[in-house]
Design a protein that fits this description.
Blueprint lengths: L6 H51 L9 H15 L3 E6 L4 E4 L14 H7 L4 E6 L6 E11 L2 E11 L1 H51 L14 H50 L4 H33 L5 E4 H18 L3 E5 L6 E4 L1 H18 L5 E9 L2 E8 L21 H6 L6 H11 L3 E7 L3 E9 L9
Helix pairs in contact: 1-2, 1-4, 4-5, 5-6, 6-10, 7-8, 8-10
Bound molecules: adenosine-5'-diphosphate.
Length: 475
């Protein structure tokens, strides 16, 4: 269907109009220029022939000159000059010789304005429509001068039929060229428009499908122009959207799953407390279980909130000394480690280590690493937290002599809800979100995380952060 509001039809019509307009302008000027040129050339030819003829007859143009001789002379000049007629008149305007023998003007006065002008010493020129032939005719009259006196006039006339024919041919040619150019422009613009709008229509269709929830849309890209770039960006956007949506679904399913277990335990405990008569000690035990499950739920919700805040990117930016934060945490945690028979060591450089970001989030990340080390290290082992500064970054490392992580699990431990030993993690109150929080926090601060581990020997978790070097003199 032809819709003028579509780019395709607009492009085609604009192209066509532009080509036709250009051709019309060019044609008009060409027509004017050529017409003018041909008429000027004819006029010059006639005047030059008239002057030549005048010079030739000036000596012989006497009153008793032989009209037959003059007429045949006029005929000769007519042939040489391509004129339609050549007439010689005397100084009174009476015809002395005419190239038209039969029905000519011999002996008559030639009543023409051009002749009068020539007798007055000018060159008379006019363009007229011949009543007899119905054709356009050019008439020229040139004075014949003998001993500085006007003794007569050469009158020449020529038909413009030839010029008219050339001009008609030229116009026909221009018209056909315009038609051809319009056809080429029309076909070209349809082809071009299709090239442009084809991918756009595909894009619109794919976007429509995405709006309906079919997110796995990809369109074929063959060009490298702006539209090709747009299509590639669209493909990338669709891919990302698809990936994130799938992730979100997975995450929601995981959250539901994680919530289900403690909620089921809670429900069971509450039902037991409600439905059964119990000894006070047994009742106390149930209440403690209830308390424990509640703590787990609260920890899970806290971690989820933490993650969602990280994704929202709403962290407050402040500048602080990371060394001081680690020292503080070390002091707070030392007694906890002590109680479980684990030695907490540290290796911290002196001086300020300034970073910028969220103090609260980074402290939480560090806290998670120390918490894991505490959970997975048996009594008698040790945990060491160290800091180092290197080329504009600061590194933080937490080493332990704990259970270690199997090689096949190591690449996944930063994923949400990933736990090597699900039962053990749950027992120790783990949510499976601790390392995911560490990774998201560090990456949101422009840093990187990593882990190395050997089963049965221990693990090392580390991350780097860019130093805030404002106000530091580098010399
Ligand atoms: P969790 O709350 O279960 O500790 P994390 O995301 O903090 O969740 O850790 C994910 C899993 O990585 C843990 O369940 C555990 O299997 C493993 N892990 C983390 N830290 C250590 C560590 N220091 N030693 C051994 N395993 C660890």
């Amino acid at each position: 269907m032809f819709r003028f509001r579509s780019i395709r039809s607009r492009l085609t019509v604009t192209f066509l109009l532009a080509v036709v307009a250009v051709m019309l302008i060019v044609g008009f000027f060409l027509d004017q220029l050529l017409g003018h040129y041909y008429i000027k050339t004819l006029q010059e030819n006639l005047v030059r022939s008239g002057e030549l003829a005048g010079q030739f007859v000036s000596a012989h143009l006497q009153e008793d000159a032989d009209p037959v001789w003059l007429s045949s002379l006029a005929q000769n000049f007519k042939r040489q000059s391509n004129a339609a007629r050549v007439i010689f008149v005397d100084k009174k305007g009476v015809v002395l010789g005419d190239s038209v023998r039969v029905g000519g003007y011999l002996g008559q006065r030639l009543e023409r304005d051009e002749v009068d002008e020539a007798l007055a010493g000018e060159t008379g020129i006019s363009l007229q429509l011949s009543e007899r032939s119905g054709q356009k005719v050019m008439q020229t009259a040139v004075p014949i001068i003998h001993e500085e006196e006007i003794i007569g006039v050469v009158f020449l006339s020529a038909s413009l039929q030839e010029i008219d024919k050339i001009m008609t041919d030229t116009r026909r040619f221009l018209f056909l060229t315009t038609l051809f150019a319009a056809a080429v422009a029309g076909v070209g613009s349809i082809f071009l428009a299709r090239r442009f709008t084809g991918p756009l229509e595909l894009l619109a269709e794919a976007a429509g499908s995405m709006a309906e929830g079919k997110l796995d849309q990809q369109i074929e890209v063959s060009s490298s122009d702006e539209i090709g770039r747009l299509a590639r960006r669209f493909n990338h956007m669709a891919e990302q959207l698809n990936y994130h949506t799938k992730n979100l679904h997975k995450f929601v399913a995981n959250v539901a799953h994680e919530l289900r277990t403690p909620l089921a335990s809670l429900s069971l405990i509450i039902k037991s407390l409600k439905d059964y008569q119990m000894e006070p000690e047994q009742r106390q035990e149930f209440l403690e279980d209830l308390d424990h499950e509640m703590d787990r739920l609260i920890a899970l919700v806290k971690d989820l909130l933490e993650l969602s805040a990280l994704e929202g990117g709403a962290a407050r930016l402040e500048r602080f000394d990371l060394g001081e934060m680690v020292r503080d945490l070390y002091q707070q945690a030392a007694s906890n480690f002590d109680r479980q028979g684990i030695k907490l060591l540290s290796e911290l450089p002196a001086g300020e280590i300034m970073v910028s970001g969220s103090w609260l989030q980074l402290r939480q990340a560090l806290h998670n690493l120390l918490d894991n080390a505490l959970d997975f290290t048996p009594p008698g082992g040790w945990v060491k937290v160290s800091l180092w500064v290197e080329e504009g970054t600061v590194g933080v490392k937490v080493e332990d002599t704990g259970s270690g992580i199997p090689e096949e699990d190591l690449p996944f431990i930063f994923k949400r809800f990933y736990r090597v030993d699900r039962a053990r993690s749950r027992e120790s109150g783990g949510t499976g979100l601790g390392l995911a929080i560490v990774q998201e926090t560090v990456e949101a601060h422009g840093g990187k995380v990593g882990a190395e581990s050997e089963e049965g020997i221990g693990s090392t978790f580390y991350f780097t952060l860019p130093l805030d070097q404002r106000g530091v003199n580098n010399t």
